[in-house]
What we know:
Belongs to the pectinesterase family. Residues 376-660 form the Pectinesterase catalytic domain. The chain is an alpha/beta fold. Among the domains are: 17-201, Glycosyltransferase, CATH 1.50.10; 390-525, Single-stranded right-handed beta-helix, Pectin lyase-like (Pectate Lyase C-like); 527-669, Pectate Lyase C-like (3 Solenoid), CATH 2.160.20.10. The strands form eight sheets. An eleven-stranded parallel beta sheet has the order 11-12-15-18-21-24-27-30-33-35-36.
Amino acid sequence: MIPSKKYILFLFFSINFGINAQNTYKNWSDIIRKNEANWFGTDEAKKIAENVLLYQRDIGGWPKNIQMQQELTPAQKKELIAIKNSTKEVTTDNGATSQEMLFMSKMYAQVKDDRYKESYLKGLNYLFEAQYDNGGWPQFYPLKKGYYTHITYNDDSMVNILNIIKQVSEQTDFYSIKPSKEIVEKAKKSFDKGIDCIIKTQYKQNGVLTAWCAQHDEFTLAPANARAFELASLSGYESAKIVLLLMTIEKPSAEIILAVKSAEVWFEKTKITNLEEKRVLNEAGKIIDKKMIPTQNAAPIWARFMELDNNEPFFCDRDGIKKKSIDEIGPERRNGYSWYSDAPKEVLKKYAAWAIKNGVKVSEAAASDKKKVNFITVALDGSGDFMKIQDAINASPSFPYEKVTVFVKNGIYNEKVRIPEWNTRLALIGESKEKTIITFDDNFSKINLGRNSTFYTATVLVEGDDFSVSNLTIKNASGDNGQAIALSVVANRAQISNCNILGNQDTLYLSGKDAKQYFKDCYIEGTTDFIFGGATALFENCEIHSIKSSYITAASTPEGTAFGFVFKNCKLTAESSATAVYLGRPWRIYAKSVYLNCDMGKHIKPEGWENWSKPDAEKNALYAEYNCRGEGFQPTKRVAWSKQLKKKDAEKYTIENILKDTILNWYSK
């Protein structure tokens, strides 16, 4: 028999409804938030709702961490009924009460069972009753002794509550149950008190508003400790949800606007963009190890706990002792806790639109942004715009019309720094050459990326044209362990002045298509080929210091290039153990290296130059000197294929000729 069209249509909708209404989620919170609306009208949902009603205490709240979808035995049901009037362990922690209220609202939207409505309203009343007079909420109510009495932002507890009360106060359609006018008015007052508490608990660091702690003392409102590994600190995670809540308020007060603006600045200042979390999972998908891997230009993350006075991230084991890295704490806490978060990125994403909407004039914002991006301060103590140099560079505009200055205060900055190709016109200025230090310890073996591993080792990598750096130290701290670049410049029109560039083998790499670079008043040290590459580079008034007997330069000047490495008025010095140092050898056969008016110590070998087993280099390379002095200057003993320039030839080696075809006077600015 052929079924009728009407029957087929009925069967189609019945099958589809059954598929759409089927619960496929195992976690209680996922069941509530991810199931489609029609599932809440199924028999399965009704059965779970009976459990939720049993778990709710007479006071109105629920205990936490219960998988309420799990079937209950008759004995368990009897026990839950017996403790209905108990107030023990009733909480808003870990989403408890808030998520059960949402479940009941979704149930009532599909099934008009008054028990669901009453359950929701009892939960709402519980939230009202639990609120402190100052507007905050404890973690447990009735109060549980210990840190649980603190005002609790931890795990978004208070934000979850305020989001419920906000929906009620604004009489939105988010919840299916519509309270009385009396309850709506009560919700408005409760919400306002909660926001007032948030404003009053925002932490001032040296007089400047920043963010919030996971817990605040219920009397003093000061940041407070919780568990042994949850010490008073500024929170990169909880603060994000607080700010997102504040940003949803229509017609915010001046205090709310200031709170949001201040928090946004703090999030920009404290973001981390050179680390990524690597998780190691077992066969069951459980985390068995976490490591933070140094990564250039990583997606921004924030530490869960930061020092109150300087925003430095810290980590704790159950002994409560602060550590600088998660690697320093045991595997139980390292792998069983969320130490980093990307939650604040949502604040930064939404901030501009919020600012314009809420009265921050475009002209003001532009002026503020211009000041911010054209002069950025980096300070380890948190007194600047950023605590990490890379974060400041990441915050700089791409291809700016005007120079962007990143001023780095004294301190030892243990980080790899990259100035990308799009960060042109960037000036990196240290507070002092001796005390502003950028250091990292990558080397060829450590990188282990094949034959070209050397080029990944740089402590500072410059790719953006029209770059300048002054008054600081750049160091590769790996020691004498093979190729290890301190500074790599693969950009055009780069100026390096009054800097220490420290390393061993391959300290300074200079390259870039038709690139011209200028070094003035610098100290450069290394062992083997410690100035190498194919760029045209002028060194003036620099000290070139050899740590051991080896080679100073290894030029790879392209064929047809007028100048390679040029040293003018430089001083060549060495450690006492370095007694046999060559001026250079050819990395490529068209290498050019010239020394003019330089003071050469006795460590320079009489023959001066070496061909690196490349006979063709003797025909094509230009290795020359002019008017040098010192015990190491022995022109009559130099290899026959090198040159001693005549005055007429030496006069061509002017800064204008060497660095021509560049922006007018770029090197003197």
